[in-house]
Amino acid sequence: MSIDLIIQLGYVIAAGLFIFGLKMLGSPDTARRGNGVSAIGMLVAIVSALLDQGIVQYEYILGGMIVGGAIGAIAARTVAMTSMPEMVALFNGVGGAASGLVGVAALSIAEGSFTYITIILSILIGGVTFTGSLVAYGKLSETIGSGAMTFGGQKFVNGLIVIGILASAAMFVMDPTDTNMLYTVVGLSLLFGIMVVIPIGGADMPVVISLLNSYSGLAACAAGFAVDNNVLIVAGSLVGASGIILTQIMCKAMNRSLSNVLFSGFASVSTTVTEVEGEIKPISVEDAYYVLEAATNVAIIPGYGMAVAQAQHAVKELMELLEANGCEVNYGIHPVAGRMPGHMNVLLAEADVPYDQLLEMDDINPRMETVDVAIVIGANDVVNPAAREVESSPIYGMPVINVADARTVFVLKRSMASGFAGIENPLFYKDNARMLFGDAKESIGGLVREFS
Amino acid sequence: MDISYLLFILMLSVFLGFELINKVPATLHTPLMSGANAISGITVVGAIALAGNGNQDLAQWLGAGAVALASVNVVGGYMVTDRMLGFFKKKEG
């Protein structure tokens, strides 16, 4: 058997393991093993690649692997679960940059227009993914403002960039010796990545993160075409498809189209003043305790506020006390709660909350009427009844968790400031709603102390 | 390799990806994402050949850089996904 055939077989096996691993990631029982299967696939692919007879020097490869692997390992071990969105954003960016670099390096072996086009594509998608992810990282870690950043003529500037990319790409493909045009594409791609993410606000980050995840796969796929490698095409398009599906799920959960998420920063947000009747009724920790002590069915609805306050462990403590008191406790998780898809599930899992108590929106809503107390922890927009009741509201039509149907609602909040979408929440003024002001961790800690 | 053959592979993998990932429950979306991200580190395979060909200095350095970046993705992605999935537990008893 020739060495080339062995390498190709290795790639086929690796692709199979990726597919199998992804399939196993579909159920909580097998997910961890699935991840392992996919990692073995990666190992097979890397070993196969190393067998390539074109490789005469291993120093560069080993050096790169050791440096990169060490950085990745340290990052993976030390990152806090609350910072997962930032981490995934950075990893996406790194993946995009890697594919972009492969594109540039592939120039040395390239021939034929098709290859040059795919090189341009991997540079373009890789570059956009890289800087776009850096901006997303900045917004998530709040090193730059998390709001939507817009300026006059943004559409015009972006249009110019796109034309610039297309023109320089076309000129490069026609005359591949003109590397200045290639560098223009590199520069404009990097700029474009910044420009597309900057106008997107913090609340839309779950969509952006999954979209960038998709891009990092597509960049790998394009690099696969550039270097003529099947396994890159297969793995890259699997990742691309997964990102697109998650993006779609997130958009659906916000009742918005993808283009609305991407470009809504451009349109001036109409600030409709909704007349809200009723009054705010604050409640003390002590009084809240008496209500909870009598409750037999409690639903907890976490949001980004729980992550900020790092309150997940306190929540788990409260849950244990409630259960010991004969109360049933469930969680209602909205698909876009937090800053990335499934963010709340990871935080609660970290605090040892069993995943079978985490209910999705469609599962918890029909049960809401039987719930004695719904505890909303740092979530605003995903429980806002205006989405159902107020037609003029910007979030009208967005599916929300119907906490107002519960007998009593406790809203844990630091102040009366509105959520990321900046919309007034009529929930707070409902007869059955009580506001428990303060840091979520301290409020829940106070409840835990009352119980014990 | 034949272009049409590569495009054929692309089309089949995209369909397969949609089929596989549509069924993943919301609970697992974050691990799915970081696991998929680790897979996108497959670029390392392309980078290896370019970093090791021993011909051109610039291409080789770029390849080595790509190997390093993709390795961050591969090692970090798989490890953090494993760490996360380790937290997911069923209710005892």
TrEMBL record, chain A:
Gene3D superfamilies given in the database record: TPP-binding domain
Q: Which Pfam families match?
A: PNTB (PF02233)
* Alphabetically ordered keywords of this record: Cell inner membrane, Cell membrane, Membrane, NAD, NADP, Translocase, Transmembrane, Transmembrane helix
The reaction(s) this protein catalyses: NAD(+) + NADPH + H(+)(in) = NADH + NADP(+) + H(+)(out)
Q: Where found in the cell?
A: Cell inner membrane
Bilayer topology term: Multi-pass membrane protein
Known partners and oligomeric status: Heterodimer of an alpha and a beta chain.
Entry's family note:
Belongs to the PNT beta subunit family.
Q: What is this protein called?
A: NAD(P) transhydrogenase subunit beta
UniProtKB/TrEMBL annotation, chain B:
Q: Does the keyword Coiled coil apply?
A: no
Coiled coil (UniProt feature): none
Keywords, A to Z, come to:
Cell inner membrane, Cell membrane, Membrane, NAD, NADP, Translocase, Transmembrane, Transmembrane helix
- TM region positions: 6-22, 34-52, 58-81
Is Cytoplasm among this UniProt entry's keywords? no
Q: How does the protein's chain sit in the membrane according to the entry?
A: Multi-pass membrane protein
- Major subcellular site: membrane
Name by which UniProt lists this protein: proton-translocating NAD(P)(+) transhydrogenase
